[in-house]
Design goal:
The structure is a homooctamer of 152-residue chains.
Chain A lengths: L3 E7 L5 H11 L4 E4 L5 H12 L5 H22 L2 E5 L7 H12 L3 E5 L9 H4 L4 E3 L2 H13 L5
Parallel strand pairs in A: 1-2, 1-3, 3-4, 4-5
Helix pairs in contact in A: 1-6, 2-3
């Protein structure tokens, strides 16, 4: 396979996506990454900004979440591998939703989180083919999966 | 259709499932409900209890979560409607995972939660055909969907 | 096959559904019919009545249409045959939407309309296995399809 | 994803498709657009012109609609996003049919219409991830979905 | 499995279907058989008789074939096993079409024909799980498949 | 869509495939054609020649038909449009099988045959989006479907 | 769900199926079990016995394996849960084939084997939701999955 | 079709993959091959090496098998043809699992093994479109399937 598509879902407040991209670029791995829009306010406001404001918070959020879904569902469906990272803040139900969505589509799931979250994430981890703790482990997974190489 | 299958996913510490069941029974609605195992400790321990203990917390949880998945995935796949309730405690990532899983399978989703959770649940709500705040609204939805009746 | 499921979509202001049901009952055909909620005002108001009122017309309608979709999509997916009738009033885009939805699912489509509508319905008719003009033709179709009998 | 496929269905008597194309080209968005044949008379006559004339109007239309379906169904199935525009003239049942067809295939739907059509289009809008009123909103949606940018 | 669904496609001028039914009834096998309409003239004329006559032979046949397809495609999709018999007369392209249709749906195919037809049926036989020469072999196959018994 | 995939199934004793290819090349249509192996003896003998001879005719044919199926099923599944031509010789059950297979996969079917075959091909034609009599009509169909142009 | 379908694949030389059936019957669990034909010689000979003898071992086996596939593939596709047991004798490639087949269909897999086989079965176990060592553990799994009860 | 994707599963201790690649390269066949990681120790250790060591053999193997599954399931799903070779050593249940997995996905299966293994592989062979004994036969199959050429 000439190229692998990897969708990076979940936490948007640390630079884990950049770490994975830098790691795979340093190795010249043939991977195309995709992700949700990670600009928090753009992601929250896109519906109302593009399609018109809403007074009620519910519809304000609903419009935005649906516009984001055009992007996220399309990209998840095109991905070979879906990596979902859970951080230590916020509810992150959208991350778990993405994991369930990807699992039902039969995508290969890699879940990335601190061991402190093992218990509440047990159902999500149970659907995964790998559970990693660090971005560099995800890079090592992609290296092995694509090239069959184990890091020194 | 002679009978509707409804899966009740999510929060397990209040009696919302019983409220819905009582409400639909009072109306004689032709509904068969299913749900995850709602005994918290049985659900946590089933893997180790049946298949052998594990020292590591990760595998203890992993075994249990997979045994529960035999039940939950089968029942979600058989359901016509999946109701997912989010409460005010715990991470509830399994509930969001179920919602994503059901959405990808094309199930009709009803999400049940307090308005205080609207913002963090916006991606989940965006995949739903109805967002309710109370169990009795779910009963009213089932009554209308099945019989076409609106409560007085 | 012991029983056939037939979904009757579309026009709700004449008694075509009753005619078909009476015709098949007179013949003792093993058919279970299903349909959208045909009470026009209940169908319009169900979302707001059950889940809370909306000031904006768009959301009022949106809530109702989604609640109806729980019923209609489930029943279309369970149907063996989908009959869609177009009348001479209203836009009836929901009827054409149902026809497209059923066609993509591979359901056997029967379209029922007056010959005056042939040209604007040509894309819908092109997806059908039968185009009928009267309810009694639909009864004759069901009789033939199920029992192999042609009416005298 | 290197390129997005967008199918532009529906109304053929205004230049809304050109507006969207010009808008996305000005932004250099990586989008490939497709559409039905928008030459009204060619679209009506293609069946009879290529495969032989028909005396009966029904078969004349039927032949043409099926030839057009070779194009439209293939292109809808290949699309990531399906935009359906409803204008103020004609029955436009083919547009609603396309929307239903795309919805059943799980495509991301954007519906484009004047607010005056909100009520009759409520079932179609309910299946959409975005409901826009202008072509420039569709351009803004594509810009955001593909690049994560909100127009100034 | 409490009951097996078997569709009997193809040749309609001998009593092979009755032989199979009698054979399985004598054994009390839990099988429900289905089949196309086997009354040749009803099958040819159903479209025009129910939906209106056609002067052109092509449309006369086309209408009838589509009405029959409502029955045949539904029953093939519901079948566990599809038996297709080829006789020594007529073109029987509908039988080969049914075999291809059933094969693409992943149905278990049993092909029934005289050895004289082995060469022209080689592509059809290649998609089958069993190729039989007599109705009683089909009965023996069903007996074995359902009960695990080999005839004395 | 930058390129259309068209599979040319059926009759192998006239030059209809070349006619279609020449016609589309003259128009510079973006089409990639595929087809079964059209060398009759290679097609008959491939199984035994590659995998070892067989004394029994049945297995000789069975081996060959399966080797050919590796090619034909893969190419049909990748095609956007499947054209099936029926000639005036041979049983051609493989052509009808391909048509049924393609129909069940939801491919756009074009059937090409002389009007003399209308009656025995009625079930096959009923699954088609176009029924043509000449190769040049197929070229015209592809021209219209791909470019929206009707020949002068 | 009123009844669970469980397919018991694999090893046929010990009474593990009977142990599971007795265990679930003692608990009155609503389970319907299915299995391949477990009479070794009938299973080997069915093809030749029913459809005619073969001199070549390859075709003798091929005929029988395909007749068995009519049963096994149908029952696996209907099952909610597939249990596959590996014993200490024979190659048992059919058991591993069934496990792969069931995994690709998304069935819930339970693998049953002695710990001595852990290493060679690691890819099979990796696709399972539970790996058990004894028949009574499978009974306990079914009890928990269906009723939510843990054995004292 | 411009390029064929062929996945080479199974035995990893002889150079059969290289033989096939050399054979097809010598013929300039447009084939892209993929395969599992064939370095035995890397394949065994990848899970623990990347994601952390495990004391229990079961989890050590389980982690590794799942990491390998990210590669193997993705590549099998992308393949047009899956070749599975069985050698004379080891249990090779993973090879049979891959064959079952590929069969359920409808892939064209070629099984490669010594005739001595015919009986225990009969269920696997029964799902194949070709059963070969040598690598050069597989090259000949690919040559014929792709180009229609039979070797001199």
């Amino acid at each position: 396979m000439s190229n692998w598509s990897v969708y990076l879902s979940g936490e948007i407040h640390t630079d884990w996506r950049e770490q994975i991209k830098e790691g795979t670029e340093a190795l010249n791995l043939p991977v195309t990454f995709s992700a949700p829009v990670t600009d928090h306010s753009a992601s929250d406001d896109c519906g109302a900004r593009i399609l018109g404001d809403e007074e009620k918070k519910f519809w304000y959020d609903n419009k935005g979440a649906k516009v984001n879904a055009i992007r996220t569902r399309t990209l998840i469906e095109k991905a070979d591998i879906v990596v979902v990272r859970f951080g230590d803040k916020y509810k992150q139900w959208n991350a778990a939703f993405d994991a369930g969505y990807a699992a039902a589509l039969g995508k290969s799931l890699i879940i990335l989180h601190d061991p402190a979250l093992t218990h509440p994430l047990k159902e999500v981890d149970a659907a995964a083919l790998a559970v990693a703790e660090t971005s560099s482990q995800v890079v090592d997974l992609l290296r092995y999966v694509i090239r069959g190489e184990l890091a020194g």
